[in-house]
Write a structure and sequence with these properties.
The protein is mainly alpha-helical and 139 residues long. The protein contains 6 helices and no strands. The protein has one domain. It is globular.
């Protein structure tokens, strides 16, 4: 079983929220919120910067196996016709969550995740190839 980085007991949840959870600015509107407000998530250049700077393991905490599972789950979602990508940008007051841009401000949430997938495959190419050669059932 693949565990969360830094844990020997917490199973790794390869949720797509991993990629965009970094845009949660709850109680950090004056710091992180202002930093992210400089970007337009609908502009292709800004979007690419956001993804490479924030979404693709900026703190280098993920192993090649974690990266593989994340991209695998993202691929499944992208290949699911009516997958609700909007939901990953929704605020959730019960969980004290405020996204930098809500689901109404992202013109094409599926496209946003498709760009994440493309850039992850480029950036993590060696890691994904290495993990792809292993028997994932042994993780």
């Amino acid at each position: 079983m693949l565990f969360h980085p830094g844990s020997d007991t917490v199973p790794f949840d390869a949720s797509l929220y991993y990629f965009v959870g970094v845009f949660d600015i709850y109680d950090r509107e004056e710091t992180k919120g202002k930093e992210l407000a400089c970007y337009n998530p609908n502009d292709s250049k800004d979007r690419e910067t956001l993804i490479t700077k924030y979404c693709l393991d900026p703190y280098k905490k993920l192993s090649y196996r974690h990266r593989y599972k994340l991209t695998q789950n993202l691929s499944i979602a992208l290949n699911t016709q009516n997958f609700n990508f909007h939901s990953y940008f929704e605020d959730d007051p019960e969980k004290y969550s405020t996204m930098a841009w809500d689901e109404t401000e992202i013109a094409d949430p599926r496209g946003f995740f498709a760009d994440i997938y493309r850039l992850a495959n480029e950036t993590w190419k060696d890691d994904l190839e290495k993990a792809g050669l292993e028997d994932q059932s042994t993780w």
